[in-house]
Specification:
Two copies of one chain form a homodimer. Chain A contains 15 helices and 16 strands. Chain A is an alpha/beta fold. Chains A and B meet through helix 10, helix 15, strand 13 and strand 16 of A and helix 10, helix 15, strand 13 and strand 16 of B.
Chain lengths: 413, 413
């Protein structure tokens, strides 16, 4: 039997049982998994140390090694993450829509699990546990394919998860892991329509594009964020400065950080020098000619408008109107998070209606686009596609629906 | 410029304007389109006659010619279809979820159009207008690719639609049609991720599979239905017989017709002879050995359990329990529509929870799975996938969401 068939059939055997498991059983299983990770802490750290040593040997960048590395604090955070998911409401077998037809049939639209979800992800080993606990709570089986650089850490984590599940009423094969790092298996996974209902890629742009281009299983595109802040003519410049500083510098390597600033021409003279004074010592500014007439900045190239820097770099452009700002954003943005700083109700409304993005802010930092900040409790990523789920993907987005129709003999005329 | 770029850029130019169009403007445009189809009736029928003549020449089956053929009644039905869509509530810029975070940010989850939807479809020319009117009302631009056998009819209909739009405030390039029947353009369309947000294939199994296998644009899988009715031990056999007759014979060529009947062993002796008497003169029965011990039937092959006959054929099997019925359905079904006939609350609940399908019935015909019957007013097809929308796809399923976040200077800590 092919490798993917073994994994797929194992998951399929667990699928129905997990889909109808009680919240009590799911929470108990998650508790057992969190205990098991705690109990296996030493082994997990030892296996992680092997990955880190291999990464050093192959000259991996320190930033990436930091993402790969586990320590006691990070294991604690992983365990806390599971406890958070335990406390979240079960998203399954709920309805907010029940209606009755003229012929007496009653229809209830119920939430049900999606089925089996595949995750293809890069270095961070905590994703292994985060993705598993969200999948389990939402009644979905999960097939994981991590990067080869984290293989020892991931294997140790999956072993601990399965050990925990064996002490619960949830079958241990609700989670399967592709332990063979052969890249062929990714291709097989992307075409395993027989076993997988959805694939979520988590990682850099190349990984995401590869998965989307090559998958015949439906995919959920997450991550890329070229986010803008537009400071309108009527904007409160004090608020604007705080918000730009926060969105650009509070954390630079994240998808909801600000990458381009747009400033209305009538406030550019006043706002840009303030910005320069506050930010120039740590952020490289790249501006168009109008910006460079006011402050010292490198010249922005056409590519800069489209770039997700994930770094201490900010592209800055002066615009004539809210319409030009909207046009620029819809042309270069990645439909993630966009903000306007304004006191004009008309411009706020126009910006929120016409900018095409998952989340559109008025007078707030783009950094809030996040499952935790939104109050979803946890997230599987932030969707930048329009199909299925858009924006932060929490438990409520990891479901599909089933219509229950109850009658007493109705036939169609 | 490549063919698909011309079409794609034309649609993109119309996208924002349509996405924020008022309900009034959209309804007025639909009315103008319906007037224009009425006004161009003669030309549409003449062009359709060419398609029918070509189909006859190439020996198309009469059943397919019937689907292709338009007449005055069918044009009337197309016009009525538009009027129905005009009367439906606008699904855009609505919210059933608004909440406020501890920091004072207010988040509203709003419905917005998906963007540009591609439809790849087979012979019926009415799909051209149905798909257009649903797309327009839900604020989505549409790219149509019909079959070459209906090319003259479709071109005449699209011409009439565009003529109608020119008298409205909605740009005529909200609809584009691939008038060149070169199959290469389908491939280009399936990879036009730059222009298309979603592709919906409408037609036979081969077309749907081809689109799903080859599209890097997200797809919505519609149509295939291998639907079952299970007559439980406790079922009311009078109701059961009515329901089976209705679901099998009221219309055989549709996806929500019943293809396999499962009967509990304890009622098989009593129920199967009734069924035989009622149905045998017009429906070919294919049974397992237990069935054939009771009534005269052809032997069912393994393939018969998986087949969507779309014909006067019914596969029949005797099962030991509701569990065996559920297992059979989850193995052979297409997750479309499934029914149990029972008076047992426990078995009804078990069947509805454990059968994996878009719609699960208790004591009613599977034929009700339909956007009109469900009260959605119209439909773009019935989704058999779990991602984005499952079951009938009406206006409310042709949307995505945008989170509006309003604050007064909030930054992330």
């Amino acid at each position: 039997m092919a490798y993917m068939d073994i994994k797929g059939m194992s998951l399929k055997l667990a699928e129905k049982k997990l889909s109808i498991a009680s919240t009590e059983d799911k929470n108990f299983a998650l508790k057992k998994v969190s205990d098991s990770i705690n109990y296996n802490r030493k082994e997990i750290l030892q296996e992680n140390a092997k990955d880190v040593a291999n990464a050093r040997k192959s000259k991996m960048k320190e930033g990436l090694i930091d993402r790969l590395k586990l320590d006691d604090n990070r294991i604690d955070a992983i365990i806390e993450g599971i406890d958070t998911v335990i406390k979240l409401p079960d998203p399954i077998w709920r309805s907010d829509k029940v209606w009755t037809l003229e012929n007496g049939l009653t229809i209830s639209k119920m939430t049900v699990p999606i089925g089996v979800i595949g995750i293809v992800y890069e270095s961070r080993p905590n994703v292994t546990v985060d993705a598993f606990s969200l999948a389990l709570k939402s009644g979905n089986c999960i097939l994981l394919r991590g990067s080869s650089s984290a293989i020892n850490s991931n294997l140790a984590l999956v072993k601990a998860i399965k050990e925990g599940l064996r002490e619960s009423n949830i079958p241990e094969n609700v989670i399967e892991f592709i332990e063979d790092t052969d890249r062929e298996h990714v291709k097989e996974m992307l075409n395993a329509t027989k076993y997988l209902d959805l694939i979520i890629p988590r990682g850099g742009r190349d990984l995401i594009n590869y998965v989307i281009q090559n998958s015949s299983v439906p995919t959920l595109q997450t991550g890329e964020g070229n986010c803008h802040i537009y400071v309108d003519e009527s904007g409160d410049l004090g608020k604007a400065l705080n918000i730009v500083l926060n969105a650009k510098t509070q954390r630079v390597g994240v998808c909801n950080a600000c990458e381009t600033l747009l400033v209305h021409k009538n406030v550019a003279d006043k706002f840009l020098p303030k910005l320069y004074d506050a930010i120039n010592d740590k952020v490289e500014l790249r501006g168009d000619n109008l910006v460079r007439n006011i402050i010292d900045a490198r010249e922005a190239s056409e590519e800069d408008w489209a770039e997700e820097f994930l770094d201490y770099i900010l592209a800055v452009k002066v615009v004539d109107s809210v319409d030009e700002a909207i046009e620029h954003i819809n042309k270069y943005g990645t439909k993630h998070s966009e903000a306007i700083i304004t006191e004009s109700l008309t411009n706020a409304r126009k910006f929120q209606r016409e900018v095409d993005a998952s989340t559109v802010y008025v007078n707030a930092s783009t950094r809030f686009t996040d499952g935790f900040e939104f109050g979803f409790g946890a997230e599987m990523g932030i969707s930048t596609q329009k199909i299925h789920a858009r924006g932060p993907v929490g438990l409520d987005q990891l479901v599909t629906n089933k219509y229950l129709v109850v009658g007493d003999g109705q036939i169609r005329k």
